[in-house]
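User: Hi! Is it possible to get a structure for several chains at once, not just one? Here's what I have:
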Amino acid sequence: MFELLSPALFLVAGALFTAVLKGHLRTLVLFAAPLATLWAIWQVPDGVSATVTFLQYYELQPVEGSPLRRLFATVFALMAFTGALYAFRQAKWYELASAQAYAAGAVGVCFAGDLITLFVFWELMALFSTVIVWCGGTPAARAAGVRYAIIHLLGGVILKVGIEGVVVHTGSIDIQPMLATNFDTWMILIGILINAAAPPLSAWLADSYPESSPTGSVFLSAFTTKTAVLALILLFPGEQVLIWVGLYMVMYGIIYALLENDARRILAYSVVNQVGFMVCGVGIGTEMALNGAAAHAFAHIIYKALLFMSAGVVIYRTGKSKCTDLGGLFRTMPYTTICCVIGALAISGFPLTSGFTTKTLISQAAIDAHLGVVYLLLAAASAGVFLHAGIKFPWFVFFQKDSGLRPKEAPWNMGLAMFIFAALCILIGIFPGYFYPFLPYAMDYEPYDSAKVLFYLQLLLFSGLAFFILLPLMRRTLTISLDTDWFWRVPLYRLYTWLGVGLKRFVHAVRGIADGVKGRVQDWSRGEGLKSGTLGELLSQPITATSLWIGVLLIGYVFAYFL
Amino acid sequence: MNGEKHAKNNPEQNPEPWLVRPESIRGICYGSVAVLVIVVLLETVVPIKGYFTIDNWHGFGAVFGFLSCLIMVLVAKGLGLLLKRPQDYYLDIPAEQEQEKEKEQEEKVDV
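Assistant: Yes, the chains can be modeled jointly so their relative placement is included. Here is the combined structure:
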């Protein structure tokens, strides 16, 4: 049954029904569609079972199964389910429907056997994630959504240029490992890296995610960047440049998160940081490293969603998201605090959490590949993650000073969703033996080697010490930090408005001249005794004026050509 | 809101939670220092074999973790001087304002 029908279609149907149904029926669809997708994902056989001819020339492979693809699709479906549970009583119906369509895009990318199918689902994601940003409902969210859409449409165009090039030059639309060696493959790589929030356009992520609704950011954190990681694993395993791109992202995320005052923006920067670990793993490219990237993506979706959920609860209950306004919330939100701390420990890679059993795979791969510098930078980054996401985020939101806020605990559905993900963080951390067999490559790896555990305990606990010693240096200020988005939000925007005004003046000047000419012509036509204003009337009609303009332009063009 | 008033008016009835009392904070500090000392001392029992020559000495993880954080915070602080702006920085050039200006200009031009 699933040779041609992508499991994503269940979510597409779910999105449509969510949009038209109401009440309990809608709730039923919200839960049933991800579960049906989850079931379908595990019915997909390995390899390509059937093809469809498209435009007489291309053999599309809408469904291609493999352990790696199923792993990513599973966590996306899981996310769609738990996200729906988290949001269904609080979010607007159009946000819920968009989230399902967005998840459908992500699952569709997972099973896309060819570049054309991949592109279609890729754009589906871009479309509906933009809607989710807009669901923030504020003017800031609308503006951020427009910027988000522009960057993603640009990324889509670059990806499409690359795909066209590869198809024209190799004749193949297959998804297969390649290296960035020529223009086409570079375009594909850049197109994917834009979605992975790689430099220099990485600013789109921290610009848009924090503007969405408290529930929207949970969905946003999961799909776009992780499908990009999957695409990198499928298309560019072992591409050396990715190691350095990944390391840059890791450090960029930490530094900006340290400067940030907005709780959700801290988490947004830490998404870039975590995706950096995965991109680096793809760059290393060994079986262990790819396992690490895939496993880390799986674990990351869960704990990052958990962190965004706890931030979402705080914003939902207090309406505030700035560290300077928050603090001391553990008094009345103990349950949310515990869930947040579990997520924070998991993102820091503390032993007995999912972050430890997945992130150390990438570090081990760096050791095995004798990449000493990469290993040490990743270790330093692990310390930095504990600093900015592991302690800073829960500390400033739930502890530090008493802000005087006494919000109620999370609503039951949000609490239950957080429970599911918190439990998964711990289960994957304590029983990695049940998780590793789902990874794409068989491997012999024991995360709980006593020396390794002790090393990471030293690393993390002493970065905790550093946090509290350096706390005076990290006093929160009512500021934002300039990022690369400054280039398109200030100078590029000014240029655009300046050109717009200039163009308007030019058009007005030309129109003035034209009016003058028209007046003359009218005088002339009257004077010549023609029926009153025939030519003048004709010229005042829009169509005539347009054709006249086209004529003028053509004459100008012919002149320019001969010059 | 009620809870807030209640807590402020009756400190005896509704004491500060355990976590923020001065004596428990002191206890947490001592406990943390003890844990830090233990994880470094444990290395004598559980030797950590470095993978590259640089990470072979005792307490490397602790020093490396602390120093990396120190450097990152200082770098962030330094970059902050350069990059930090008031939080309404981008609001000074909102699209709406620009559009308003454009409209005004258009009207002027039309007149």
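Chain A has a mean pLDDT of 91. Chain A is about 70% helix and 0% strand.

User: Great, thank you!
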